Amino acid sequence: MPEVQRRMKLILNLCLSDGFDTFPTLLCAAGCSMIDRRMVIRSVILNLSFHSSVGIYGYPIEIQALFYFALRCSRQMMKPERDGKELIERINKRITALSYLIQKYYRLDFTQLNNIYRYKTEEYSHTAVNKFNVIPKSIPNWVFDFMPLRGGYLIGNVIPARMDFRWFLVGNCISILSSLATPAQATAIMDLIEERWEDLIGEMPLKIVYPALEGHDWRTVTGFDPKNTRWSYHNGGTWPALIWLFTAACIKTGRPQIAKRAIELTEQRLPKNGWPEYYDGKAGRYVGKQTRKYQTWSISGYLVAKLMIENPANLPIISLEEDKRISKPKLTRSISF
């Protein structure tokens, strides 16, 4: 145990150190998450030749949710001895700030989308509404059709002047399980999945990211990556291994019937197709063109999902309840005011 504590402290001191990136998030380079290739969104702004790029590089929701989860777990494991007490205090401050930022600036529903659409730019001072100076014309057209009146989600990435509006399954599910998403936001995520079942689930669960990069975006961003053609692999491919994560999120939000429906779809094809790694196509209809079969995580993901749906009491093993001690951080003005 002393060695475990020592190594935890080394990692925490590294992750909690001061830096020049956007506090309190954790900076992530491209390729440092499950999406391990260049999957950046490029969008024309104001019909000029300038392009805005935002994607996995920066502060993707998947990494921020994992970071939050790790901080909460480390707080439980850390012994308040010697410098442990000081580290716990730093963890508490980071958890408070991180949860506030994600819950406020990553959330997107119909109302918030309409607000962003009407944003003014180049605002200054503490009265600014458009904190990240997002240019409304940078909102991709697909979002307006995709967003239902009921439901919402945590968007993929937020950096100054740019947002990645794509849906990422892993980040949203981990946000639910770690309680990074508020109960209302968790419910909205499940509502969105129900409203957009054909897009996010289709004929085989589960779509890792929506939508896919196509045409010019695919050519310029991925460099003609043959593995990441549209609706394949990490570019909108379907990954059955994620069924356990999805099932756990459904159980936590009181929607086990959604998970059962997804598991039934999985059972119809996954064993017959040889437990492939991923599926291709907008609906996940085709076995992936470069997929490997009899994948351990495809099999174990299904088994864990079945065990959890049969006995939801196992959920606390991989889930954390909402932390009532977390409150809105105190926001103070700069001394220059």
From TrEMBL:
One of its GO terms (biological process) is sucrose catabolic process. The keyword Hydrolase applies. It catalyses: Hydrolysis of terminal non-reducing beta-D-fructofuranoside residues in beta-D-fructofuranosides. One of its GO terms (molecular function) is sucrose alpha-glucosidase activity. Its EC number is 3.2.1.26. It comes from the Eukaryota. Keywords: Carbohydrate metabolism, Glycosidase, Hydrolase. Belongs to the glycosyl hydrolase 100 family. Invertase that cleaves sucrose into glucose and fructose. This is Alkaline/neutral invertase. It comes from Gossypium stocksii.
